Amino acid sequence: MTAHDQGAVSRRALPLLALLVACLVVITGCGLTGASKDPGGSAAEPGATAGADAEPVTPYDVSPLLKPKGKYLGVALDGVPRSLKAFDSYSKRIGKEPNVLEYYAAFGDGFDTSGVRKIYQAGALPFMAWEPFKPSLKSIAAGKSDAYVEKMAKDIVHLNLPIAISFGHEMNGDWYPWGRTKADPADFVKAWRHIHDIFQDAGATNVIWVWTPNIINPMPKVDLEQYYPGDAYVDWAGMIGYYTVTGAKTFDTLYGPTIDEIRTFTKKSIFIAETASQEGERRRVDVNDLFDGVEASDDVIGFIWFNIPKRADWRIEISPLALAEYRKRAQDSDFGFDIRKQQ
Fold first, then answer.
1. pLDDT tens by residue, 68-106
2. ω into 257 cis (within 30 of 0)
3. Which of 5, 8, 149, 277 gives a 20 to 30 Å CA spacing to 106?
4. Where does residue 138 rank: exposed (0-12), middle (13-18), buried (19+ CB within 10 A)?
5. How many CB atoms lie within 10 A of CB 241?
6. What would the pLDDT profile of 170-220 be if each residue is shown by its tens digit?
7. Which DSSP helix (H) or strand (E) runs through 211?
8. From its phi and psi, is residue 275 left (phi > 0), alpha (psi between -120 and 50) or beta?
9. What is the DSSP secondary structure assignment for residue 110, as one 8-state letter?
């Protein structure tokens, strides 16, 4: 081949070489030289977090959980969310995994992201009873704890899983520092709204806000509405009430008066955030009455059984007959649906 011929071939090869280089640039830019992306793929899994180069994470949508077709079957257990051993043991005893798991956190405590994620992975809605032992409600409302609340909100946004939060439960009672004899109802409402607003500003839309007064009987007469933050700040109108040996003996007499009063100012779904039956001969009957009452009430979406010894031993397993009844009633398909399939 002559030098002239070689030069002609080289000139013809240049456009082809440029085309090959351009293709390599396009392919590399599409990320095909490393881990591939699926442009038509689904949104990130719940609980995932976005890295610097990751696709935006879709915020968890809690709306299907607010008014579910089934009933919540919940439990409060000691030691969670640090460990779920108690949850596993309880599930075996009742023959079903509860779909709400309540735990208690003092205002000022850090957020246990890992533990809460494990609750969700076990098929349960994490339910945090947030207890403001200190500082005061007035101080919280004034913004003196904003740095802590903002950090909590950001951690919950980062979690990107559903979580129910009850702030300052049983505020109409007189046994907590945020209760009726030690704090003003207006300060409770201001503190609640202030916290809620910080969470909203942070994008923590994965929170279900649960307002939980104590049942009004046999309490001294207290106007519940003065403690209500308003429908824009509440998702569930909860309540706390226990079957006791000397107390009300039916669902209607135990919870009915409180439900009736709540219905004068809100139509939010009712959630029984704590209940149990005191040990005694009637305990088996109480279990049946609880299930019957929740099942028959369209606007009562479930309950949490307080399975912790405190002032009395509320654990269901210490009463074999009551446990057998609870186990039988818990098998009803209306109770204990899988919250992960509600999306």
1. 999 999 999 999 999 999 999 999 999 999 999 999 999
2. no
3. 277
4. middle
5. 24
6. 999 999 999 999 999 999 999 999 999 999 999 999 999 999 999 999 888
7. strand 207-211
8. beta
9. P
CA distance 69 to 98: 16
CA 330 to chain centre: 21
CB 226 within 8 A of CB 271: no
CA angle 89, 92, 98 (to 5 degrees): 85
Q: Pick one of 3.90.280.10, 3.10.20.280, 3.20.20.80, 3.40.50.720 as the CATH number of 70-341.
A: 3.20.20.80
CA angle 204/209/215 to nearest 5° reads 165
> How many other CB atoms are found less than 10 A from the CB of residue 187?
17
What is the number of residues in the chain?
343
Give the integer Cα–Cα distance in Å for 18 and 63.
54
The DSSP 8-state label assigned to residue 335 in this structure reads: B
